[in-house]
Amino acid sequence: MSMSNKHSPSESAPPAVSLRTHSLQRSGRQGWASYRVGSEELEAFLKNPEALFQHSEAVTIKQSPSTLLVKVPVRFPEGEILCGYKKVFRKTWMKRLTDLFRWQDRARHSFEIGQQFLQAGIPTPEPLWVIPPLRWSWNEPAYLGFEWLPGCRDLNGQLAELTIDQFFGDKAIRKQVYSVVSMLATVLGRMHAAGFCHRDLKFSNLLVDRTTTPVQVYVIDLDGASSHTGNVDRWLWNLSRFARDALQHNLISRSMRCRFLKDYLRANPTFPITWKVAWKRLGELVDKRNRRRSKAN
C-alpha cells in the first residue's frame, strides 16, 4: 500500500515566511523578538522575565532541574496569542563553563535558526522572543517564548495512542498514518535540502497535528540545529537517530521505512546516492549508535 495520497505534501513546498526581528536592552539585559511582539511587551519581558510563570492562566507542561515550560496566553498588538514559555538552565558545570565561551547562547541560536526555518518554508513553531543570560553569568537562565500549537503532540505520543489492531482494523487510521509518514519524509527532506541539520532528530522533537487535512508536521528543539550543512554524511547521521526510534515501534514496518526513505529522497533531490545505498548506510549508522549507547551504559 502506497503512503502517498491526493494531498501528498511533496506536490508543492509551503510558502516561505517573511520575518523581521528587533532587539531591546533594558535592566542590564538584551532581548530579541519577532515584530509580532511590540517594544512595550519586550520591555516588560526584560524587566521581569519571571512574570509569565506566575500568570493566573499559566499551565505547567514540563518541570525539571534544567527546564520549566508553561503554556500561557499573552497579549500582543495583534491580539492574544497562546504561547509556550520556557526557562532553561545549563545542566552541568561543564556546560556552564563551555557556554561562557560560546559566541552565541543556545536560546538565542534557537530563536534565530527558528526564524531561518520559517523563512525557508520549514514548519516549526514560530519563536516570538528570547532573553539570553548575561554574557559572563555562571548559571543565569535563558528565556524563550514561542507560538503554542494546541492541536499537536510529539510523534512518540501519537504512536502511543495507536495499537496494531486499530491500525489494521481501521482504514481511515491506516491512511492517516501513511500520510504522517509521507509528510515527515517530505519535511525532513526539505529541511536537509535547504541546508539545515537538526543534530537531535528523534521522535520527541517532531510534532504532528492530525486535526488538519492534510496532517501537519513541525520540527522543534532547534538549539543544536545548524545551517549551511549540505553534507550527505551529516544528513545520514541525522536520519540514523530518527531511524533508531522507528525501529523501536512495532507499528512502523520495514515497507513503511522504505517508503519514508523514498519520499525523503524525492523531497531532497540534492541527495547524491540511491535509496538502496542510503538504506544500507543507515543500517550501519544505527548499529554504530547502538554500540555507542551500549558502551555508555
Describe this structure in words.
There is one protein chain. This protein has 297 residues and is an alpha+beta fold. It has two domains: 21-147; 152-296, Transferase(Phosphotransferase) domain 1 (Transferase(Phosphotransferase), domain 1, Orthogonal Bundle). It contains nine helices and ten strands. The strands form two sheets. A seven-stranded antiparallel β-sheet has the order 1-2-6-7-5-4-3, sandwiched between helices. It has a three-stranded antiparallel β-sheet with strand order 8-9-10. The longest helix is centred in the middle third of the chain and has 23 residues, at 171-193. The protein is globular. The relative contact order is 0.13.
